Amino acid sequence: MGRKKSKDAALDNLPASIRLTAKKKYEVLIIKELDNGLYGECRQDYDGLNQIVLASKQFKNKKDVLITFIHELIHAISFEYLPDKQQLTESQVMKLERGVYNVLKLNGWLNI
Asked: Residues 31-53, buried b or exposed e (16+ Cβ, 10 A)?
């Protein structure tokens, strides 16, 4: 099932869900804004769901959308593949987010 069209084509190009393990899938949810003012958040077992949530109001351009999606995806990967006491810190996630974005961009996998 598809997602409702937004004003931002970058948001429309994101998948409705993403599978991280054979048994775990994360819904990619786009809402207007988060109560905490963040660009996005990763929710693990939130009312029985796993979600990557993006706040559309915060994005100024396509790059913001992609970087935030990568950032929250790294959090989800950390939740699924690392033991609780070894979860990535916010600082580590931010460094990886930039690194992943740059690799994708430099190799022509992003059209920005």
From this structure: eeeeeeeebbbbbeeeeeebbbb
